[in-house]
Amino acid sequence: MASISKICLYKPFSLSFAGSVKDQTLLQRCNFPATCILREQVPLKNECRVFARMPERTGTGVSTYLRETGTGDNGDYARNDLDISHLISVLKFCGGEGCLEFGRTYHGLIAKTGLDGDEFVNTSLMDMYAKCGDIDSAVMVFNQMPRLDVASCNCLISGYANCGLFEEAFRLFMNYESWGNKPNSYTYSSMLAICGTLSAIEEGKQLHAQVVKMQYLSETAVSNALLTMYCKCEAMADAESLFERLPQRNIVSWTAIIHGLYQHEGFEKAMRLFCLMRESGIEPNDYTFTIALASCGNMKNIDNCRLLHGLVIKKGMALGEFVGAALIDMYSELRETDDAEKQFKEMGNLTSKVSRNALIKGLVQNEKANEALDAFSEMVRKDAACDEFTFSPILKACASLPSFMSCQQIHAQVVKANFDKNTHVGSSLIEAYTRCGSVEDAEKVFSRISAPDVVSWNSVIKAYSQNGNPRRAISLFRRMIIKGFRPTGSTFLAVLSACSHSGKLQDGQEIFQSMINEFGVSPEEAHYSCMVDLLGRSGRIEKALDFINNTPIKPTASIWRPLLAACRCHNNLRIAEFAAKHILAMDPNDATVYVTLSNMYIEAGLLENAENQRKLMKLKEITKEPGCSWIEVNNKIHKFFSRDRTHPESEKIYDKLKQIMMLIKGTAYSTNADSLQVKEDFCLYHSEKLAVCFGLISLAAGKPVRIFKNLRVCTDCHMFMKFASMITDRVIILSDNYRFHHFNKGGCSCGDYW
Which parts of the sequence belong to the DYW domain (predicted)? Predict the structure, then answer.
């Protein structure tokens, strides 16, 4: 008997086709069994050996090989000598690896040899085409089959499901009996999976009834599919009831119900069932442990988490890719970042993209943005693969600082990794650039996203809303609706903020009404607060008060605060006192209320009342948050406080400030300059002025100066920035706790409406 090495043509090799969408390492990891060979009576020809040794093969090479081996011209030769099991194995491999061109070549060979009448071969062809995403070819094969059995129908249903064509899958299922077939257990498992994906609970229940009638419930694959379907449809009562009545439960059954409970925040129940599973003699696998660790972390019980960690170590799974990452997630959820980092280090060389992503996400989640950036830098240094689950959280870290330079550097990595068109990464990039005040970069990112979703649209609308371009924000909002996207609560919040920031009262009121009447989105606290701000800023103080009194929800401190701010702006002391009373009833330690009232009393000449506010603050030990500004220079954040002299460059900073003040006083705009001079002693050394002066002496000429402040910018500093942008011919971007101000050539993007 000839040895396999002499007769097996299709040993592992690499093959690529001209015009294929990616390099095909087709059979590199596939060791076919002895049945997948030419008939042993036929020795391997010389041209076969040459073909098998070719490091790269083109379509021409395949054609030459088929012609010279006789499979191209002599159908009888191939029909006699090709093993069907070999064909099925190759087609299965093509489907698994997405090798469509190679699969098409074999389809041609099958047609030439007359094997296209074999139902097993045809079913394999359908499966290959469907898995490669060419569902039309799969349907063509299906329609040409002389006889349709249940296997071929099941195969096409799976193909439709894989391609997201769920209606076609249901239609095919309804026609089973017309072809003389009855659905089997595999059919019901596939259809139940589709119902779960679509959250089609009613259809799922009808299938459940059929499963019971056909007596398939005893088959674990079907019962597990039912269980998963109910969990995905959020019908946990049905899922739990079904689980209790299951005749047989395996690890998949237990894991499905535990996972369902976890997804619906039934963490205690999930852990209770985890314990019951072990008591019943079934030991958890990696996936079960992953869910249990996540549930335990969400319960916020550190002792139970450590016990579970001990069990994982005992089972030898602590260093596994997914369990190890779940441990990092668990400790991050508990805010125990030291333990999370310790687990990561213990994994050593076994760390993977999954565990690195978990560490970065955990650090960002626990407001350790700089440490997250360090972890990301380490990934880049080690040339570790990054994906959307790496880039999205690290961009959140950039946004939280915010760090424009880091954002640009990570954006370069995104482009390098070909994720610049990814919807999720793109949305995170837009958010990061928005927080850095670079709306131009945010717009460029949005234009490159291949398939923007509602989140992407919301992000770019928010970018223009916060950066002083309300017209563009409203225009994008309307364009989004025209393109068929349904706005969400976040969309309306962004566009209402744009109206509020610019005084577009009529537009804001119309959009608010359309939110309720046209799109059926229920307003939340933030929307009501935004509308109060819109009315109050435009001077409609009484209407703002009426709006609050008529809201269908109980007004919160967040709804009353914009009314107080509007009263401060329009000097309405009576309503300010009324609003302050309501805020302090809900938040008695809100320092801004006392300070605002004190300032209003001083301006009204009620000095005794102002002093009483200060005494109340002292008595209640309430302190106002100190103003703080920061700027990024050479990848380092520099912080400043009012009258701060701790910075190494303090002398140069104060000299620059005095220089600018002298130039301002020498301008032709004497009225505004005199206003600045009156407040000089009180406001001259505010933190944002120190920060901008440091930027002017540290950054290259012509480079924008980006300043961030934790409190709202005062009128004096706002005026100073306008003059400074004109005198120094610099763009100055200042972000306070409410919005961005873009100063350029003596003007501000807010139009002095803030």
Answer: 677-754
Residue 636 makes CB contacts below 8 A (sequence gap 6+) with none
Put simply, whether the predicted model's pTM sits higher than 0.85 gets the answer: no
Pairing relationship of beta strands 732-735 and 705-709 according to DSSP bridges: parallel
Question: Among the listed ranges 34-38, 60-64, 614-618, 666-670, which one has the minimum average pLDDT value?
Answer: 34-38
Do 530 and 567 lie in one domain? The reply is yes
Phi, psi for residue 747 in degrees, rounded to 5:
-120, 165
Chain centroid offset of residue 457 CA: 14
Question: Per DSSP, what are the bridge partners of residue 708?
Answer: 630, 735
Structure tokens given for 151: 């296997």
Task: Give the end-to-end CA distance of the chain in Å, rounded to a whole number.
Answer: 90
Kindly tell me the sign of the dihedral angle through the C-alpha atoms of 636, 641, 645, 650.
Answer: positive
Residue showing tokens 């059995």: 149
pLDDT(8) > 50: no
How far is Cα of residue 409 from the mean position of the Cα atoms in its chain?
Answer: 20
**Complete DSSP assignment for 382-420:** TT----HHHHHHHHHHHHHTT-HHHHHHHHHHHHHTT-T
Residue 561 · residue 529 · CB < 8 Å: yes
In a domain? residue 732: yes
Residue in 445, 452, 501, 447 with CA at minimum distance from that of residue 473? 501
Q: Is residue 512 part of a domain?
A: no
What pLDDT was estimated at residue 684?
A: 82
Burial class (CB in 10 A: 0-12, 13-18, 19+), 502: buried
Q: How far apart, in whole angstroms, are the C-alpha atoms of residue 504 and residue 494?
A: 14
Domain of residue 562, CATH code: 1.25.40.10
CB 211 within 8 A of CB 188: yes
Which band of pLDDT confidence, cut at 50, 70 and 90, is reported for residue 681?
Answer: low
Contact in structure between 499 and 474 (CB atoms under 8 Å): yes
Q: In what order do the strands lie in the sheet with 740-744?
A: 636-641, 628-633, 705-709, 732-735, 740-744, 747-748
Predicted confidence (pLDDT) at residue 679 exceeds the cutoff of 60 = no
Residues of the domain holding 738: 628-667+682-748
Question: Taking a C-beta distance cutoff of 8 angstroms, is the pair 231, 263 a contact?
Answer: yes
Q: Are residues 600 and 658 in the same domain?
A: no
Residue 148 sits in the same domain as residue 134: yes
Determine the 3-state secondary structure of 631 from DSSP.
strand
Element (H, E) at 747: strand 747-748
Q: Quick one: 637 and 536 in the same domain?
A: no
For the chain, the domain total comes to 3
Q: At what angle do helices 454-466 and 470-482 cross, to 10 degrees?
A: 160
